[in-house]
Amino acid sequence: MVDEQVYEQVDGRSADERLRRLARAHRVAGSYKDWRERETPVAKETLVAVLAALGVDASTPGAVRDELARLEEQARRRLLPPVVACRRVPGADQIHVPSQTEVSVELADGTILTPPPASPTAEGALAYTLPPDTPLGWHRVRAHRGAQEQDAALLVAPDRLRTPERVWGFTAQLYSVRSRASWGMGDLHDLAQLAAWSGRELDAGFILVNPLHATEPAPPINPSPYSPMSRRFAGPLYLRVEDVPEYRELPAADRENIAALAAALRRDMPLIDRDAVWTAKRRALEILYRAPRTPARTIAYESYRRREGTALTAFATWCALAEEHGNDWRRWPSALQDPGSPAVAREAERLAPRVDFHAWLQWQLDEQLTSAQRAATDSGMPIGIMHDLAVGVTHSSADAWVYRDVFAEGVSVGAPPDEFNQRGQDWGQPPWHPQRLARAEYAPYRDMLAACLRRGGGLRIDHAMQVSRLWWVPDGASPADGTYVGYDRNALLSCLTWEAARADAVIVGEDLGTVEPQVREDLAERGVLGTSLLWFQRDRDGRPRPPGRWRRLSLATVGTHDMPPITGFLHGDHVALRDRLGLLTRPAADEAADHRRLLAAWLELLHAEGLLADPPDAVLRAVARGAHDHDEAVAAALHALLARTPARLIGVSLADAVGERRTQNQPGTSDEYPNWRVPLADAGGRPVRLDDLPADPRVAAAVAPVRAATRSRA
Q: Which residues form the signal peptide (predicted)?
């Protein structure tokens, strides 16, 4: 707790000013603009708690003074930041150092460059300009001033990513897209089939799926794909057992055992049960792991393990330990909480077969993910599979254990209150520690990006503001009582665009909600597409934005996984659900009235654009009495509106295409709603299988407008 009286009695108002100055020095916001553009001050208690999570003592005025003095001395002695990020464009191609400092650059191939200094800046510093032909990628920069010498990583990033051709694609929660051959949830074989069919028959250019990150290695498994155990490694839940090559050579008895395990999961269950799925799949995969491999397969596995190196071994070790001690490493014996400890090394040796099993699972995932991307591109898709990168991992996760030194403790990432989540959000995820991550030269971050980009042709960055700032919530505080902590945006964006350029991949940033000034412009300048969500496309007066005024560099969609599909939204299901769960901060009648006004405005625009023949009043009257007469016409009109925008990418939710009504996730809930467990179904709740999509007239009607608008691949 902050002793307010100590702050006031000892130093008066100046103590508060120094605290906020210290916060600014660590990129901790002392105030912020909320979703209504109102300036909101951050409480002293929050500032002190967040600074403590950064390793800064601000509990008393004296501690604040000492820390400010330390920062001044550090700035005086520093020649270089831990990472210097440049681009080969004027103004972004310079290395800034204090006066009287000499600079040299050692390229990745060992070549030494001595760039000439420019004129001193207004602050008296020097700016060394890189030669225009400096290779892209990672190098080293060295600075000398008298007896002082420092070196740092130098990243030369591309000016901007290529702009993708205009295409459309399905957006899908893969686990919900079940086929008659999948094991109770959609898997990577289903993904390959969906991509191949939609690319070949519907001219789709991509498939955007939920994060396929690693989950817990043993039940209970958190159903949220946005609360993973690792963002670098993928989830074995998504493996198709029968696609493992060794399956074909199994003895008949083993194949019968596997068939029996699968049969129990192929019934139409009302909700997806990941614990049951993984229990069965793990038993089947253990049979396959023990099966003999050909010499070529053995060599391929050894090559994969060499490529992934110590990161794979550490992750697989965590998995093996979690099977014995539970999925939360913070509850393990203290000697096992440090991944570098002798105790962990001894346990890894004892559990070597299980460690190897979990490494082998990642190899199978690598192969099946590669096959899915190949199926997509072979169908004619220019992008293929677009993966989704979650904001972070849980506190109990493998990543938080392996990279413990670069995460902040005592806080979680979340979001401040906004229009749809009026109490704010606490996602239960530790944030990167900005300074420690920089001192690690962003290696955990860029290695994660490289791994994700190897698996497809594009990457969506959930909560794209993570490259610039995150909302930190102190432990025990309300999500509304957090504050923003800033990161080196230039460095993080440079890491992102360099890895994307290496993979020739498309990047989409989910930039919805409260976005600080200049972030969208910086993303666009680098060639990172934004996200244009139809329901959020309104002008300053709240009126729907006509399609011609939407952003060009964006992925345009109607909704998102945190909102109901079109049919549910049309009927106000989200208002009724949040009211039933106690998530509203004002009367339900007021929320419903606002929803009707918003819906009426969109219907009027659709009608005025000639996309909806039905009069808006007739649609509203039908909705009011619970009728579904106009549902499919409204859905088709909304997709036709997307087609009229200049957006480079257009996403059509598979749930919208089949008339699904239920939302996949209701923010602010855990067990109150079956988040992330809803299998794909139509408006009447009847299951929809992947096998049935090609003959479903609703799907063809839903995608017809976007298919026609992008068929030329402009």
A: none
First to last CA, the chain: 59
DSSP state of 84: E
List CB contacts of 432: < 8 A, sequence separation 6 or more.
392, 406, 407, 408, 445, 487
**Residues 94, 118: Cα–Cα separation, whole Å:** 9
Instruction: Give me the amino acid identity at 658.
Output: V
pLDDT digits (tens, 9 = 90+) for 118-144: 778 777 789 999 999 999 999 999 999
CA 648 – CA 555 distance, rounded (Å): 7
Q: How far apart are CA 529 and CA 648, in angstroms?
A: 8
| Residue linked to tokens 């609703």 | 698
pLDDT given for residue 712 in this prediction: 58
Please tell me the pTM assigned to this model.
Answer: 0.95
Cα-to-chain-centroid distance, residue 131: 35
Neighbours of 430 (CB within 10 A): 25
| Gap between the Cα atoms of 550 and 661, Å rounded | 27
**Cα 445 to Cα 310, 390, 407, 492, 506, distances in angstroms:** 15, 12, 12, 8, 18
Q: How far is 511 from 421, CA to CA, in rounded Å?
A: 16
Q: What DSSP state is assigned to residue 188?
A: H
Q: Are 666 and 420 in contact (CB under 8 A)?
A: no
Q: Where are the alpha helices (DSSP H) in 264-294?
A: 274-290
The radius of gyration of the chain from alpha carbons, rounded to an integer in Å, stands at: 27
DSSP run (H or E) holding 17: helix 13-25
Tokens 């939204």 correspond to: 569
pLDDT in tens, 344-385: 999 999 999 999 999 999 999 999 999 999 999 999 999 999
Residue ranges, the chain, pLDDT below 70: 1-13, 420, 712-714
**Whole-number Å distance between alpha carbons of 43 and 33:** 14
